[in-house]
């Protein structure tokens, strides 16, 4: 297939998928909450820039399970499978050939720090979903990482425009400390929902709790509702 046709196909599939989840997306608290909690100017989704209980940080703290996998670009692969029509296994090259997105967004960690206006570059999860075509029965994803971490998301959160698999942050290749070569970011949810060192995205027909979600963190993780624990 011609490169352009391939891109057109991804864009078309993404729009179809979006249409399927549009109403549910509009109802998610991080865009629709009538009484969001927090302070400061409003962010681009109409929520207070600093969510309740958060403190702005300039430095970027590092949080993990005590083990930082060392994944070379040659070894790196991304599996996307489960409840999809067209499972794929992407090499680094395949991944970098996909449509690339730049965005600037905020990073809210449940341990009460927020890092504002981070410039990112990567691939939209929605574009990856368009590539694999989730079955009509798919409702959630479980992300798996090279360090055995997992975290779960509903599709109405996962398919948001600002959910990216990033390889670049602050105009530099994403550091291993922060999940490089590639991590996910979830600017509208607490940052534990964004898997560092991401390895596999498993589409599921129902919700399945991830590592922290099984250990008492919230399933939904809405920063403007102080939704930290379940
Ligand atoms: N693979 C993996 N991803 C992970 C984690 C982890 O331990 N392993 N920790 C999560 C948590 S709790 C947070 S707050 C953020 C921290 O990202 P940072 O270390 O880049 O600040 O990554 C999330 N993603
Ligand atoms: Mo965290």
TrEMBL record:
The protein's name in its UniProt record: Sulfite oxidase-like oxidoreductase
Alphabetical list of InterPro entries matching this protein: OxRdtase_Mopterin-bd_dom (IPR000572), OxRdtase_Mopterin-bd_sf (IPR036374)
Positions of region (Disordered): 24-48
Superkingdom, natural source: Bacteria
Lineage, highest ranks first: Bacteria, Pseudomonadati, Bacteroidota, Cytophagia, Cytophagales
Residues in Oxidoreductase molybdopterin-binding domain copies: 71-212
């Amino acid at each position: 297939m011609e490169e352009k046709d391939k891109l057109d196909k991804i864009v078309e599939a993404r729009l179809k998928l979006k249409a399927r989840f549009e109403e549910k997306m509009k109802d998610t608290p991080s865009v629709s909450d009538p009484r969001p909690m927090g302070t400061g100017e409003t962010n681009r989704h109409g929520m207070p820039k600093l969510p309740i209980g958060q403190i702005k940080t300039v430095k970027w703290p590092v949080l993990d399970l005590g083990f930082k996998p060392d994944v070379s670009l040659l070894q790196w692969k991304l599996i996307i499978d489960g409840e999809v029509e067209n499972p794929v296994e992407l090499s680094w090259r395949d991944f970098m050939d996909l449509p690339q997105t730049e965005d600037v967004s905020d990073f809210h960690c449940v341990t009460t720090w927020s890092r504002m206006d981070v410039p990112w570059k990567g691939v939209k999860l929605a574009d990856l979903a368009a590539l694999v075509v989730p079955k009509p029965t798919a409702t959630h994803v479980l992300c798996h990482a090279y360090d055995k971490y997992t975290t779960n998301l509903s599709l109405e959160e996962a398919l948001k425009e600002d959910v990216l698999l990033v390889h670049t942050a602050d105009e530099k290749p994403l550091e291993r400390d922060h999940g490089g070569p590639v991590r996910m970011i979830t600017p509208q949810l607490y940052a534990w929902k964004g898997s560092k060192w991401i390895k596999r995205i498993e589409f599921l027909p129902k919700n399945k709790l991830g590592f922290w979600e099984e250990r008492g963190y919230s399933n939904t993780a809405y920063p403007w509702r102080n939704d930290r624990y379940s």
